[in-house]
Write a structure and sequence with these properties.
heterodimer; A: about 400 residues; alpha/beta; Rossmann fold; four-stranded parallel sheet; four-stranded antiparallel sheet; 12 helices; about 20% strand; elongated; B: about 300 residues; 2 domains; six-stranded mixed sheet; 10 helices
Chain lengths: ~400, ~300
Amino acid sequence: MIAWQNPSAFIALVALAGPILIHLLQRRRATRLLFPTDRFIRASPTGAVRLRAPDDRLLFLLRLAIVALAVCAVAQPVVLTSGRMRAWDSTVARAVVVDVSGSMAPLARDAAAVADDEMRSAAIAFRIDAGDLDEGLRRAAAGLTHAPPARREVVVISDFQRGALTPQALGAVHATVGVRFVRVGGAVDGRTIDGTPLLGIDGVARRPFVAVEGDHTSVVWQRVSSASSGLTVRAATEMDRSRLLKAVAASGAPGPSPEQPVVVTFGGVDAAVGQPALARRWMLETVLRLRNDPDLVRTIDATPAILARSQDDALVLDVQAASDSYPAAAALRGVLTARHGGAARAYGEYEVATIDGLQLAAWSRSAGQVQVAMWRHANRNEARWFWGLVLGLLAVETFVRARARS
Amino acid sequence: MSATPRTLDPALLASIGDLELAARLTVEGTISGLHRSPFHGYSAEFSQYRHYRAGDDLKYIDWKLFARTDRIYTKQFRETTNLRALAAVDASASMGYCGSGAVSKLDYARILAAALAFLVVRQGDAVGLVAYDAVVRRYVAARTGQPHLRSLLVALSAVEPAGSTQSAAALRRASELLDRRGLLLVLSDLYDEDDAVEAELRRATRMGHEIAVFHVLAREEIEFPFRGDMQIEDLETGRTVLTHGPTQAGGYRERFDAFLERWRTRCAAQGIDYTRVVTDMPLDRALRGYLLKRTRSAAQ
């Protein structure tokens, strides 16, 4: 069976009309010939008419064949034999989709090594780096559509965080294309994450416990049990204090620690000059962090002056701002953050659940056999043989023409 | 060593200019190997005996002498001929056709007629000439001898192709000019009214003349190898026909072959020697073919 990769080239068969029309329509001047007698000659009924059969049929047929074969060569013929189909079946065209989302950053080297192995073992391979695996799958499927004839396969390399792949994206991949998943970094199917204790509105820290199981996540808050919360806020009024704590708690500030008690005063309420400053190392670190807290410097219109000292193993910070002011809330949050050592991550969101292995196995499928329709993208075709025939016929035509002339 | 070429190219002979030389070359290239004169007269006189040699005609063996001597002898005769030959050369315009070669049909016929005349004169017979188209344009009475041959060849050289053919009248005149039984050599392309010509040939036969027709043709007339559109002009009538070579060639050849076959059968029916000669044939071969045929028929 012969298939044509570029059937639109057959439009060029119109070119065949060229030689035909030239032969049929060209006006030829009749040659005057003196002849002994006209008694055996009949006036040709087509003699004065333009349409007539070609004079030299061999040359005419040769030229038609040359044009026709050239058109066939441009049409890129592919001969589909069982041997060729078997050869196509023994090769693999592979699209390797590598997850490059944030969670894969620590696993990038492993992923690259696996991807290299996968690409080396395929006759035709290309790599797609995708932050979104669904999008990567779609690109891979589209890329394989134009791949040369071979068994087609998509290999997805990822840590397979839950939600990274959807059945819809897999459904977009043609059924004959195999899909395989290679996990890097090991499976984390279900666990409980201890979150950072956060400040509650009552000034006491609460620790979130994030349970990731199956396809849902639940959070349980647990009050950090201690006689002292580790935070003392001295505002002008109780209302100011309550509002201040609500505002700072709502902003997600880290909770205080009973082991590192902090006392925050506002407006010089409890200023005590001459007290020993910063008796503990954590106090010094907290103050230094507070001093360098870019959020505090950037977000407050007028950065309040904060005086630090230690008193009874507690860090006392005197904030030169009214307790009902915005700088006061910012300063309180800054103090808690500085003591904690950085911003709180309540949910440990960088460690989510992954798609379990059974699900991935269910989604996997092997590559189907090469489809006949794939010949359209074959790298090699029989055009060269047709061009050879064209050259051969051109030589014959030249020979015949030379012989006719002689 | 003989200087005569193996085959006599008509173009070469035509280019010689000296018709006598051309005729001599043709004849010498032709008659070598012929055992006896191709032209027989009408009486023969005993000359001598000779020992029989293989290949000798048995009818000349003297059986009485064999009975007496137990040896086989062959009788030899000296031919005393009184043959009168007349070459009737068609000099109409159609005979001026050369085709793709350098020799026109008239040139070819001229050399052939000269060679025949040379042969006849060489064996001591009389030969004459009639060149004709619609009428007899040139007439040389049949006589013997080299001087006469030269004057005949001069007259033959002066003939140019012109006019239309009306062979019937010319042949009637020629057969009348042969005042007693003789040999009429007709060299023509026979593009004429066939029936009238045939009637005249039949009449000449009845008059006791021996007739040999040389149908002189060019290769192009037989094969019609022309391509493309052509405006064909008849050399004799000046009529033009517009035709297309490749499409008409088949029909032309069919009609022409029928024409040739018709002439061949007509001549055979009348006991006329019919020889078709084509202007690209070597002249010696053309002449030799005729002479061999004539020798064979004479032997019978």
